[in-house]
Amino acid sequence: MPEPPKLPFLIPEDLEPRYINAAYITHNPHEFILDFATMMPGLPSMKLNTRLVLSPLTMKLFQHAINENIARYEANFGEIRIPRGHTLADELFRDKGGQTPPEETK
């Protein structure tokens, strides 16, 4: 299948990339709301960085684009493995000083 033509984006000079490591997705009959945040160890709350509001059709197209890009990434760089701690946050922010949760000890 041929690739669709790329849209020429104009990127503002003051555009700042945002690092996110947490997302919350909600929806109603008319739209999907995607909230992206940064979670830092030791802080009591996350800082919301970005909110996207998409129509159901746009969300479905977005999902398709994400799935396609993950497949391309994994074809080039290998499988993206999901951590297996108590929770993803436990795995990402546990003590890096050699402490390993008991379920991960061999």
Radius of gyration: 18 Å
Order of helices and strands: EEEHH
Average per-residue pLDDT, rounded, comes to: 83
Query: Helix coverage percent of residues?
Result: 25-40%
Neighbour order of strands in the largest sheet: 1-2-3
Specify the biggest β-sheet.
Answer: 3 strands, antiparallel
Shape: globular
Strand content: 15-25%
Number of strands: 3
Class of secondary structure makeup: alpha+beta
Low-confidence stretches: 98-106
Number of DSSP helical runs:
2
Distance between the termini: 46 Å
Helix and strand arrangement:
Layout: E1 22-27, E2 32-38, E3 47-54, H1 56-77, H2 88-93
Antiparallel strand pairs: 1-2, 2-3
Summarize the entry for a quick read.
With 106 residues, the protein is an alpha+beta fold. It is built from two helices and three strands, in the order E-E-E-H-H. The chain is globular and about 45 Å long.
Q: If you had to describe this structure to a student in words, what would you say it looks like?
A:
The chain has 106 residues and is an alpha+beta fold. It has a domain at 22-94. It is 26% helix and 20% strand. A three-stranded antiparallel beta sheet has the order 1-2-3. It is globular and about 45 Å long. The termini are far apart. The model is unreliable at 98-106 (pLDDT under 50).
Task: Provide key terms for this protein.
106 residues; three-stranded antiparallel β-sheet; 26% helix; alpha+beta; single chain; 3 strands; disordered C terminus; 2 helices
